[in-house]
Amino acid sequence: MEFDNTLEVSLPPDEAWRVLLDIRRIAACIPGAELTEVVDERTYKGKVSVRIGPVAMSLVGRARLEEVDHANRRARVKAQGADPKGRGSTDSVIDFRLEPAGNGTRVLIHTDVKLAGSIAQYGRGSGMIQSVASQLIARFGEALKTQIAESSSRPATAANAVPPPAKPASGLALIARALWDSIVRVFRRQQRR
Amino acid sequence: MKIALTLNVNGRDHPVQVEARRTLADAIREECGLTGTHLGCEHGVCGACTILLDGEPVRSCLMFAVQAAGRRVRTVEGLAEGEKLHPLQRAFIEHHGLQCGYCTPGFLMLATGALERNPDIGDAELLEVLSANLCRCTGYKNIVTAVRAAAGEMRLRR
Amino acid sequence: MKPARFEYHAPKTVESAVALLAEVAPREGRVLAGGQSLVPAMALRLAMPGHLVDINGVAGLDRVRVEARELVIDACVRHAAFHRQVVGGPLGALLSHVVRHIAHYPIRIRGTFCGSLAHADPASEWCLVAATLGARMTARSVRGTRVLTAADFFQGPMATALAADELLAEARLPLLPADARFGFHEFSRRAGDFAVAMSLATFRIGNGVMTGVRLGIGGVEGSPRRIGAAEAMLEGQRPSSTVLRAAADQVARTVEPLDDARYAAGYRRDLARVLARRALESAAA
Fold it and tell me: Per DSSP, what are the bridge partners of residue A108?
């Protein structure tokens, strides 16, 4: 399943790029996401908890930044996650890129998700996933805006300081979101109702 | 942790001890030993598990046994009177309304509920009611014919 | 497969039900009413609530009554209650027309109106009715009672404004004016399947023009809603074929359809157009 989402950030592209690669900051903006281990500078382990109606899931996963193009502000993340209760697993490839939008930045996200297990076969209207994904991205965007506003109002912050360019790139934020997108499979039933 | 309750099935009381998660379908089959009620999909789609709860057709896989305490349950075993088959059962045989027979108890209870509630049920409404259940063998036509035929006989008996 | 273990509670009063909910909601506790949506998810172990609060035994939750020009529907009122007209006038007729489209007879025997709202499946007919007619939902918890409008209540697929420990105690539908007309159409692949798209239209006709127009779309997006842009094109206009078609086209332009492998967005958009037109035509007829 492939779909596209867009997010607007009120920072110029260079700053937005740095913020989006700041894994801890991004993880904090995703409700229910937790970074559990840094395996190496491009590989992270995390957990995302989501609920859709009566279905509450925790997906434990691993995300790896496969390609980072600082010059063009594009990156590709590959993520796998599985439900510890055996309800299925996800395999995602997320491409994201930034482009200027007025005084800010537009983040374009393309997600390609494969689902396996009961969360995949119990399917109906996977369009719901995209709808939920859009809402999550909107909420993530709100949280990010709040965070950016709060940090820019403080005198000397990470956002204002020049980040070291050698900082390990991380797209866990978007990985987590993609994991989240891919697991918010709710009531995808072949049920006749 | 098990809960003790009494299930009233086909007029007989069955004291059982079941976990809360035990579905009514499973309790009827396992604890009460009445395996005429079948499990098809176990998630409320196929209707093979249909029984009558206080006279109305209900999918017993979508109820927990504990919820049926104090209610009157009727299953396919309760249709015949001794050796004498219910008109619906005879009609299903005469009109070839079954092949493998797996969906049949569900259809019989669904039809019994519909016809007892409204013996003069019209064709369109009958089709609508019967469309609740799935059959892989017959193609449905003979099921509908059988129920129509039984309806006629049940009306005459009154 | 079989549902996972849970602790079962069967309160006899609303007070004890909300007290229980307050206690078990943090531990994955949920309300069990009709169970026709919850139990399938539990059977497949997609949902594994740790506790179920069964409200079927709570006294006085099965009434449908008229109060202050609203139809009040309690938490345990079954879909089947609407097979006959529960109130005279267009609202009763509307509800008994819509109910026939919900699932199948045995499911309607157990499933509840309020359960449908609380579950907020995009393909729920009652959710479309609630959104289009402007229902008010009463939520009860140990913190008290609050009333939510339909606009605030539906927040996306399977998402409502209800807190985890809130019970949807009742839904209130405004009675329609005595001369109101309605039209409802839905599309699904097979009888009884989840609707791919549906539309509900109501209005009155006075001096040859439509007034009080409400036009809702469901199944197409994550939540049902009224399409104000189309309503504005209809209000005060004669219900001519041209006007109705133009409004239906506006519906198609306005909706942001769900998109997946089974039903592409364009297909749902087109269904929205056709069903909106049919709903309007039925109401005008």
Answer: A6, A97
Q: Which fold has domain C181-284?
A: Enolase-like; domain 1 (3.30.390)
Sheet containing B12-19: give its strands across. B12-19, B2-9, B72-74, B50-53, B56-59
Both structure tokens of A18: 């740095």
Question: What pLDDT score does A156 carry?
Answer: 44
> Considering only CA atoms, which of C187, C145, C190, C152 is closest in space to residue C166?
C145
The mean per-residue pLDDT over the stretch C233-247 comes to 98
**Whether residue B84 has pLDDT greater than 50:** yes
- Give the span between the Cα atoms of A168 and A58, in whole angstroms: 26
Which of C200, C215, C144, C176 lies closest to C66, judged by CA? C176
**Nearest chain C Cα distance for residue A95, angstroms:** 19
Look at residues A94, A74, A89 and name the one whose alpha carbon lies nearest to residue A173.
A94
Residue A122 has pLDDT above 60, yes or no: no
Write the CATH number of the domain with boundaries C64-174.
3.30.465.10
Give the integer Cα–Cα distance in Å for B101 and C67: 50
Choices 3.60.150.10, 3.40.30.10, 3.40.50.720, 3.10.20.30: CATH for B2-78: 3.10.20.30
CATH class of A2-183: alpha beta
| Greater pLDDT, B120 or B156 | B120
Neighbouring chains of A at 3+ CB pairs within 8 Å? Answer: B, C
The full set of domain ranges for chain A reads 2-183
Q: Which residue has the higher pLDDT, C44 or B58?
A: B58
Q: Tell me: ipTM over 0.95.
A: yes
Tell me the pLDDT tens digit for each residue of C95-108.
999 999 999 999 99
Q: In sequence order, what are the residues at sequence separation of 6 or more whose Cβ sits closer than 8 angstroms to the Cβ of residue C30?
A: A54, C38, C47, C49, C51, C52, C53
The structure's pTM equals 0.87
- Report yes or no: A72 at the B interface, CB cutoff 8 Å: no
Domain with CATH 3.10.20.30 in chain B: 2-78
CATH no. for B87-157: 1.10.150.120
Q: How many CB pairs under 8 A join A and C?
A: 104
Please identify among residues 29-48 of chain B the ones whose CB lies closer than 8 Å to any CB of chain C.
42-45, 47
* C contact set with B (CB within 8 A): 1-8, 10, 35-36, 39-40, 42-44, 52, 54, 56, 80, 100, 104-107, 109-110, 191-192
Say yes or no for a CB contact (<8 Å) between B58 and C110. yes
- Residue among B2, B21, B39 with most chain C CBs within 10 A, to mutate: B21
pLDDT at A139: 75
Nearest by CB to C157, from A87, A128, A191: name it: A128
- Domain C7-57 belongs to what topology? 3.30.43
